[in-house]
Amino acid sequence: MAKAAAKAKILSPSNAINDPAQSLQTFDLRELQPYTQEKTFATGASKDFHLFYAGRDDIHNILKYVLSRVSVSLYLNMFGYDDDELNDILITIAHDPTITMLVTLDKSQAHGAHEKKLIDLDTLKDLEEFNTHFAIGNSLTNQISHTKGFVADSKVAGEGSTNWSSSGEGTFILAGAPGGPKYKAQNNTQSIITDLDTIGRFTAELIAEHLVAQKQMGGKTPAQIVGTTASKTAAKSPAKPAAAPKKTKSGK
What we know:
With about 250 residues, the chain is an alpha/beta fold.
């Protein structure tokens, strides 16, 4: 019975954002085997680290699998933030008061056409939640914020050269395999890590980068930094009373 349950978990859909029974508390790297070209890891593969390749492995679903199972905390810095589905997962997390989330975005990229449009839609849906969880800025020395990684639930980390975009992650036109019309993929890597020392150190770095970005905003909100429609509308409108607490996806 236990083996059957474990197998069912491994084969569950990649996006589990609406399934509170799915979590990262017992996460095992082998759960990501179905998203590799080989569909299995080598016998001597590390239990703490695995490297995936854009265009060869299904990085989009790997990221969905991990991020949609967050239930405690998420610290993330992403240079290129152009993935609508991953963004929807983060915005859902933002509405759950039981989850601590800090997201840092690069200032130059946030003004790009697709990313700015995505942020604009987020702030139109819920300006307050976006401003609470996001920060937009540069590095400590005022260079680009080029980190591309996260720590989820203090259990799983991800880091690599992969930006969140169709070509960055690799666009899988055919189900579960590269190839097909308009197929495209950059040369990128995505690591998934469960080593606790790496996770602890990376968590501290991601929080530090977020605090730097917050300070650089100089009292402005991230929505104001980008110049979203919602931020401009809010500046012209009188302050509204605080909204009633929202129900979470898990009913907490």
